[in-house]
Amino acid sequence: MNVLATPAPDSEVRDLSVLYRESGIAEVFDKLDRELIGLAPVKSRIREIAALLLVDKARHAVGLSAGRPSLHMSFTGNPGTGKTTVALRMADILHRLGYIRSNHVIAVTRDDLVGQYIGHTAPKTKEVLKKAMGGVLFIDEAYYLYRPENERDYGQESIEILLQVMENQRDDIVVILAGYKNRMETFFRSNPGMASRVAHHIDFPDYTADELLQIAQLIAAQMDYRFDAAGLAAMREYIAHRLTQPHFANARSIRNALDRARLRHASRLFSSSATANAAPEKDQLMLITPEDIRASRVFRGGLGGESKIS
After folding, report:
1. Cα-to-chain-centroid distance, residue 249
2. 169 SS3 class
3. Which of 47, 80, 217, 218 is 20 to 30 A (C-alpha) from 253?
4. 3-class DSSP state for residue 59?
5. What is the SS3 assignment for 107?
6. Is residue 195 classed exposed, middle or buried when 0-12, 13-18 and 19+ CB atoms within 10 A define those classes?
7. pLDDT digits (tens, 9 = 90+) for 114-167
8. CA 234, CA 253: separation in Å to the nearest integer?
9. What's the burial of 157, exposed, middle or buried (CB within 10 Å: 0-12/13-18/19+)?
């Protein structure tokens, strides 16, 4: 179902800047800039897609049509680089421009689509697609759908159903496949039918140390915390150490680090308040100090998985 209305042949050509303002997508880009630090190449590509759709609407309004643009996408990059957030904002843009009926995003993984026995996969995949209709289906780590080493695996059945829907119902659903870049490239080489249906490939770069520090400040501010100069310097050092250690997940790791700093902050305030027999001041409740950061095992050479680093 194409949600774009059929135009009158003699419709007047619309000013693209007017269409841009009326669509409200400027608000979406403002929100994206507030939510995500950096990612200039990603934001530029999203703006290019929005421009394509605006021009397509203008062409459609005067009876010109090259067919609905293909909107299925691939988001590649390491964990914590903003893929899910961009998918949410992409859904907003597509909805405001009239290319999907709703801005809802259904986020799933292999387990939501693939069954454990014969006859289980098709109903699972179709149920997920039913929920996603009219909006965006976001499949994280999509390459796990394809397991050629296991000839009894049911992932291929799910892929075949997805391919049919992506082609035959492309006017009513947008599918975004996400995951590590190298694994997604292998997945597309092994599934040329899927590759041919995905028009937009967007790579999400890792954040720089400076961007990660800005992310730390942004996340802290969103929770009504702040760093003083010494605390910010400690956070910068934490990031420098953490970047050299395994299992680093960009913004996700920074959020986890701040959660642990909040635990130390709370413990410190509780101990101080009990000793002084006095309530902490508002600024104390907000201020993350160097000791809240430097108590992390990262400064003592702690290595291992995310859950083991405090």
Report:
1. 13
2. coil
3. 47
4. helix
5. strand
6. middle
7. 998 888 999 999 999 999 999 999 999 999 999 877 777 899 999 999 999 999
8. 16
9. buried
